[in-house]
Amino acid sequence: MAGIGRRSVLAGAGALAMPAISYGQTGVIKIGVPTILSGRVALVGVSSVGGLKTVFEKFNADGGINGRKIELVVRDSKGAPQEAAKVTRDLINNAGCTIIIDAEASSASFAVQEVIREMGVLCIHTNSETSSLTADPKLHVPTAFRTARQGIHDAIAGGEYAAKVSKAKGLKRWMTCSPDYAYGRDNTAQFMEYATYFDPSIKVVEEAWPKLFQPDYTEVVTKVLNANADAMYSALWGGDLVAFIDQANLYGLFDKMQSFMVNLGDYGVVDQVKQFPTGVHSGNRYNRTVPPTAENEAWYQSYLALNRHKPTNWSWENAVAAELVVEALRETKGDTDGKKLAAAIKGRTIKSVFGSKGTLTMRAEDHTLIDYIIGFGVSLPQEPFITGFAGADWGPIVDLERQWKKKLGYT
Amino acid sequence: MEPEALLRCVGAASCIVTQLTSGLIMGMLLFLIASGLTLIFGVLNVTNFAHGSFYMLGAYISLTIYRLTDNYFIAVIGAALAVGVIGMLFERFLMSRVYGSNVLMQLLVCYAVVLIADDAVKLIWGPAVLSMGMPVEFRLPPWRIMGGVVPPFYAFLILAAALIGLGLWAVIALTRFGKVVRAAAVNAPMVAALGIPVNRYFALVFGLGTMLAGAAGALAAPVRSLTPGMGFSILIESFIVTVIGGMGSIGGALVAALLLGLTRSFGSIGFPLFVDGAMFLIMILVLIFKPSGLFGKPAR
Q1: Residues 184-203 of B with CB under 8 A from A
Q2: Which of A46, A132, A352, B79 satisfies CB 3.0 to 4.6 Å to B62 for a cystine?
């Protein structure tokens, strides 16, 4: 036993205890996906995985990279931050995942970000729109990126659009109706900030903050009615938005005021609202006609062929993450080292059907996606559901975003 | 707090009509759910923590029947009956085995059923949000009463809930079934000693209670988004109603449900950031000054 000392035992134990990422350079490439697969927003996980499949299944069918194929390991965090952190750790340490695609909602994404800071693997946040995740330098993690649209981008583009409509139609008295949690509060404050920036005559006269997942919106609808506002902005989404529209229709709410609903045009909502309102201003989430190209239609059809439902906003955001991972793997020749993959993604521009000019860029300075199609249109009760889409120019968005960052001390 | 907005509202007939009817509709639907909960507690002395799941099942089953028949009324009746049967099976095969056990055991059984029901819904109907949409017969412009806005569908819901509540009262107060149930609630062994199959009555009461939750889910389906787990949020409010009204008191459930509905309705104008807080505050005050609830009998 003379050859086995305390140090060699510790070294051996250390090697065994090392996470599986050390052995990730051969065999299948496992990508962990913490997401929400249960509860009221299970569609987040379902349509996120649907978007990933459109890219990874093709990648595998084409032979992968050096014979190595990608395997998705999807885990349900139920949207709970603590569970998301635990699941992410487990995916890396025990399931052998060397890349994380974080398809969580905002609150859990912040928890995942801290796990990634510790583990050093490549991570792409695909659904969290909360701007500070990548804008705040204190939260920066060198191997973490975001392909989700960013709240501040939507606020600037939406605010500019709303101001144009407001000036044209004389909409002075506004009210807001958004879910009472971080996303709803931030998104609404930013939207109204830029709407008033572009049209200073706008005044917010009333606010309604229904609880997230509130079953009944009757008192909210009647409050909106009683406010006698000219226009309403809402960041409600998913099932909450479906219920709100169903209940608002009973009161003829959409005939009484101009409404701006950033999340209305997503297929997850469009397909469920049986009396889809006409003339509501909606942000583009994902729509098969935006852009009206053969490539977009082909992606839409490929998504439908792989999944039993239509794509959502989350689907394209995840598909872009998958594209970036594939390109990065090609550049590193299949090496899944977090730093190498991050270097390959940082500042990268890819061709994409979801780009406002046919390309998307992962901005190097803050690891967030820019140049995606962003803008507003007007709702229709039948295909294409959104018409008169007005795409925003990224020049002013980036300029105003820079000022916003400066104001918050992010630069 | 926005007291001036509330004063403006109570000073305008249009606002009073709109808020009063919205308070009534919220209250009456809440009453249907809570009355089932309180009925089960009053007779069986068990707290059905899975009650929200029966509300959810009522909504989903009514959606399926509506899609098959295109008839909202058949959908509501069919769903309520189906949920009643499921409730009786739940009582016979699970809950009846934990009568007399401590409340933690009952909670565990109910929680297991909640999880199973949510996953079953996901398997059968999928995880995405579903919506029934407004039945054609109710796609009408809202009524204008004294300048206020009243949707015809909500007027129907208030009427339907009131009739169901009246029917429930008649069954409990005027029928032989009701007499046996009331007697069993006081002294089940004595009723059994008279040769009355008490267990069968217990199952029927449980079925009736869950049927009320199912009916509420089915009635509300056209204006609620259907998602797995939708029963949870409604369960909390139902418990508040039951505690305020008095555990086991159906009349108390009605008063408390209307109180909460009107609190929500007028509170959203006068104290919008404290609506939920106000509901819990009422509950706390009741617990302090009348722990058995407004209409409940003190525990013996």
Answers
A1: none
A2: B79
